[in-house]
Design brief:
The complex is a heterodimer. Helices cover about 35% and strands about 15% of the residues of chain A. Chain A is of the alpha+beta class. In chain A, the strands form three sheets. Chain A has a three-stranded mixed sheet with strand order 6-1-8. A three-stranded antiparallel sheet of chain A has the order 2-5-7. Chain A has a two-stranded antiparallel sheet with strand order 3-4. The longest helix of chain A is centred in the last third of the chain and has 27 residues, at about 160-185. The radius of gyration of chain A is 25 Å and the shape is elongated. Chain A starts with a helix and ends in a 20-residue tail after the last helix. Chain B is mainly α. Chain B contains 14 helices and two strands; from the N terminus they run ααααααααββαααααα. Chain B has a two-stranded antiparallel sheet. The longest helix of chain B is centred in the first third of the chain and has 35 residues, at about 25-60. The radius of gyration of chain B is 23 Å and the shape is globular. The relative contact order of chain B is 0.12. Classes of the chains: A alpha+beta, B mainly alpha. The interface of A and B includes residues 3, 9, 29 and 31 of A.
């Protein structure tokens, strides 16, 4: 009959109205600045650079290979390779980023930089309160702002970080075994150059 | 004591006016009432906007504005400050004079409707013999302002919104009038004061409001539908349909002029609710005889706010109609029903005082509702489009 649906709808909205005063199920608002929902583990907002050990500059895993810079779809990563080399986490001499900037206003949180990185050096952060009143300098994060410790990574993405650590340890063990084998072998022609920088299939 | 409380505003006005010389008294009395109306209803408007935002939020499982002051009570003040301090932009190609006049015409026309509404016993600004006619005549001029706004803005959205508004308001003006004509027929007067007095009788403690008769109930439902359309409220808010027309006829209005349009819209809602209350819900009379001691103005404003709440409830429930559905509904359903209602009202008058008229009138109306609803409002099945020449 005509009007039946309207009455049903009115009953439904009345139920919602009255229910919002008594049941939390019908009042789902979270008042954000005061109340927060804990981010879920898979949250990803903006990339950061992982470093090992206590010293951020020395421990950066990034070797300035610039793959992420080239792969970034909106081109928001700006890297300058260093002139000199310094030992990386494994102890091998590597380049390091003299400059590593990411523009927050351009980044689209696609995670492609993370997927292409062969060194597990760049990961996604869960921090989302990145707004600033300085729209030129403030939105361009430099490598000091981007550097965050491995412990922090473990804190925000425990499962993923554990996997990454296991993989790195495995690689390191393999590299050491190979180096040992190379040292034991009579021919010193092949140095242990390859294994440490061997690309790992991107996954996060 | 209660009689004094009932007449407190009237007595206060008489005392205040009595302080002036005799020659000035009539003018001063009218001016005082006008000032009170102009102050009271915008205040009510501020409250209603907050009520609406809170109510709609609750319907949608949200909290609503709660930052400005305790429970968001200062939100209307914040809104007012915002709209008063905003830049007033007039498009370069707009017709400046008409663009400026449109919101004024709307608000003035709407305010004039309040002049004839009896807001309590002896509380009416002008007791005209044809006050209902005056109300509709003044109310019809809001269409003019809407079209002025849409035309002068020289914006396609504004013009489309205005065209829709005019089509809609004129279509629904007819059932609005027709449903009130039944009341005029039964009362035998166009005076709103007399219409309220005719309903202010009690049998076994129950009032003789027109809504408690078959023709009155049908008339009230039709009146409510037409009033919703007339005030451009959801589900008939096509003129400002924000999803397709930005904001309809006030797309090009900003700052204080926008606030005036907003005010005019809500004032229109108040005045039409006041009229509906007066015609069908017994105006300022109490719902039970034993509650007769409560001041009459409390009843009037209570009923007014109740109808506003229903407006908000309906807005929170129904989606917007399509233009063809809107027109079909007006001309195929509401208008035939109101015409039939006139006939039923006449029948009611001449069938005597017995129980027969209840049965006959109710049966006719229910039957007509079912049949007209089935036949005219049946869902039209739109199949794939067929071409006469192209195939």
């Amino acid at each position: 009959m005509l009007g039946e649906g309207i009455l049903k709808g009115l009953a439904e909205t009345a139920k919602n109205f009255a229910g919002s005063f008594v049941s939390a199920e019908r009042l789902t608002t979270v008042e954000y600045p005061e109340q927060r929902i804990a981010p879920i583990e898979a949250t990803r907002v903006f990339p950061f650079l992982v470093y090992d050990g206590p010293e951020w500059e020395a421990g950066l895993r990034c070797v300035a290979c610039q793959i992420c810079e080239k792969e970034c779809p909106p081109k928001c990563i700006y890297i300058e390779k260093s002139k000199d080399k310094k030992p990386d986490a494994v102890g091998k001499q590597q380049f390091y980023p003299a400059k590593f900037d990411i523009d927050v206003s351009v980044c689209m949180s696609c995670q492609i930089c993370v997927e292409v990185c062969p060194f597990e050096a760049i990961k996604m952060d869960t921090e989302f309160e990145l707004s600033t009143d300085d729209r030129f300098g403030g939105l361009l994060h430099d490598r000091k702002q981007l550097a965050k410790s491995n412990e922090y990574y473990h804190h925000i993405h425990p499962t993923e970080a554990a996997e990454v650590d296991a993989r790195l340890a495995e690689e390191k063990a393999k590299a050491e075994a190979k180096a040992k084998a190379a040292a034991a072998a009579p021919k010193p022609a092949v140095p242990a150059a390859k294994p440490a920088a061997k690309p790992v299939e991107g996954e996060a | 004591m209660f009689a004094t409380l009932d007449q407190i505003f009237v007595l206060f006005k008489q005392w205040l006016v009595g302080l002036l010389p005799a020659g000035l008294q009539p003018v001063a009395g009218v001016l005082l009432c006008v000032v009170v109306i102009i102050g009271l209803f915008p205040g009510l408007f501020a409250l209603t906007v907050l009520l609406e935002r809170k109510g709609l939020a609750r319907i949608q499982n949200r909290i609503g504005p709660n930052r400005a002051g305790p429970f968001g009570l200062l939100q209307p003040i914040a809104d007012a400050i915002k709209s008063l301090t905003k830049e007033d932009i007039v498009p370069l190609s707009a017709d400046g004079t008409v663009h400026f006049l449109a919101p004024l015409v709307l608000v003035v026309a709407v305010f004039m409707g309040f002049a004839v509404l009896p807001m309590g016993r002896n509380m009416v600004l002008v007791d005209m013999d044809a006050s209902l006619l005056f109300f509709f005549a003044v109310g019809a001029s809001t269409e003019l302002s809407v079209f002025m706004a849409g035309w002068s803005s020289r914006n396609k959205y504004s013009l489309l919104g205005a065209m829709r508004a005019v089509a809609q308001m004129i279509s629904y003006e007819v059932p609005l009038l027709m449903s009130s004509v039944a009341v005029v027929m039964m009362t035998g007067s166009l005076s709103l004061v007399k219409i309220v007095e005719a309903q202010n009788h009690y049998t076994w403690g129950l009032p003789h409001w027109y809504i408690f008769t078959p023709w009155g109930f049908a008339g009230f439902v039709m009146f409510a539908i037409a009033a919703t359309a007339e005030t451009n409220r959801s589900p008939f808010d096509l003129p400002e349909g924000e999803s397709e027309l930005v904001a309809g006829y006030f797309t090009e209005y900003s700052g204080f002029k926008f606030a005036l349009f907003f005010l005019g819209e809500y004032l229109g809602m108040f005045s039409i609710s006041g009229l509906g209350t007066t015609l069908f819900l017994g105006g300022w009379s109490a719902p039970f005889a034993f509650l007769g001691w409560v001041p009459s103005w409390i009843w009037f404003f209570g009923k007014l706010m109740l109808s506003i709440c229903v407006f908000i409830w309906v807005r929170g429930t129904l989606p917007r109609l399509r233009q063809d559905q809107l027109m079909n509904f007006a001309w195929k359903f509401v208008l035939p029903m109101t015409l039939l209602n006139l006939f039923v009202a006449g029948l009611w008058r001449f069938l005597g005082d017995g129980w027969q008229r209840w049965v006959v009138c109710s049966a006719i109306l229910v039957l007509a509702y079912v049949i007209v609803g089935r036949v005219e409002m049946r869902r039209q099945h739109v199949g794939p489009r067929s071409y006469r020449y192209a195939e």
